[in-house]
Structures are given as structure tokens and as C-alpha cells.
Amino acid sequence: MDIDDISPELQDEYNSKYKRAFDLLSEYAFIGSRGRIGNRERKHIEQTIPLFTRCIEIWRGSWSAMWGLGKAHQALGHHRTALGWFERAFKIEEGNSDVFREASLEALSLGEAKKALSYAKKACDLDPDNSGLHANLALALLLNKQGEEALKKIQETCERDSKDTVSKNVMALISDVLDGKRPYPEKIEG
To answer: Could you tell me the maximum CA-CA distance found in the chain, to the nearest angstrom?
Structure first.
């Protein structure tokens, strides 16, 4: 069922609730590190959950509302729940690299190495020029104890985008693991 298959009244309700939820999410969920927000931000992000939930009740095919629920739970530090919403979203919208990126980040946070690697590869396949996605893939390789492959991937990424500080930090982490300065991580949090 498409959004056009529901009544105009429900479409209006969906659009109103989605806009309100996304506006709140945009204002508060993207401001800092995942799971490290203040009480004010937490309150506003929590308000998005029933709004996005109602959107999905209205239109079960709303992958973007599922993505929004994933982002809200991600910001609140509810990584298992966030991953579940991202996985539901990409079953509907298989061509969006951002949904796979977020799923890979949550899998990294949870220490789910195989999922993190699978989702990171899919994100890179969908958007091969995105340095951030390749840095996530390198982290997923590291989590899977494929250190040499992770180093190769992050070196390629740094060569493509020499100004990307995130990729440089990822390379430092991988190098530390390969040099024996740090153990292989069990999970990687944002």
C-alpha cells in the first residue's frame, strides 16, 4: 500500500505528525554524540516516538518514519531498538545508503560484527564515493578482526579524502590495534 491509497484525512494527519516529529528530531537528535544528550534534548526526542509511531500506524510502509524512530532511539542510547527500526526500514527502502549506515553504526555499538560488516558493505555499494561509509566499513572489518583489510580500506579512504579527520582517527585506531597498543574491540561506539 502506498501513501496515496489512504484517505486524504489520514494523509494530512500523517504529514502533520511526520513534519512535527522530523522537525524535533532535526533540532535535537543530530546535535551531538549518540546517547550523550541533556535532559532538554532527551525530552524533545522522546516526543518524536509517539509521532513517528502514529505515522507507521497510518501507513505501514513508511520507511522514513521507521528511520526516524531508529534515529530517535539511537540518540537516546537505545541501540538494540534503534537497530531494529533501521532493519525494518531497509527491508522497505533497500536503496538508501543512510539507512544501512545507521544500521551498521548500531551493529557496531552492539558488537554485532557480522551485521555491522554486512550493512556497511551495502551502504558502500549504494554510495561508493562517501568517505564516511568507507570509514564505517573499516571499523566493521576491525570489529570482525580483519585488521589488515581494515587498514587497507581506511588507507584508501584517507587517500581519496585527505582532509577527513574522522577517517584519520579511524586509521589511528586500526593502527593501534595492529601495533598491539590496543586489543581488538568487542564493540565500537560512536
So the answer is: 61
Please indicate, yes or no, whether the overall pTM of this predicted structure exceeds 0.70: yes
Q: What is the CA radius of gyration of the chain?
A: 18
Please state, in angstroms and rounded to a whole number, the distance separating the CA atoms of residues 150 and 141. Answer: 5
CA angle 71, 15, 46 (to 5 degrees): 35
Rounded Cα–Cα distance for residues 117 and 119 (Å): 6
Q: Which residues does 84 contact at the CB level (< 8 Å), separation at least 6?
A: 70
pLDDT of residue 33: 45
Domains of the chain: 7-93 (1.25.40.10), 113-190 (1.25.40.10)
Q: What is the DSSP letter of 34?
A: T
Task: Return d(Cα 131, Cα 34) in angstroms, integer.
Answer: 20
Q: How far apart are CA 44 and CA 138, in angstroms?
A: 33
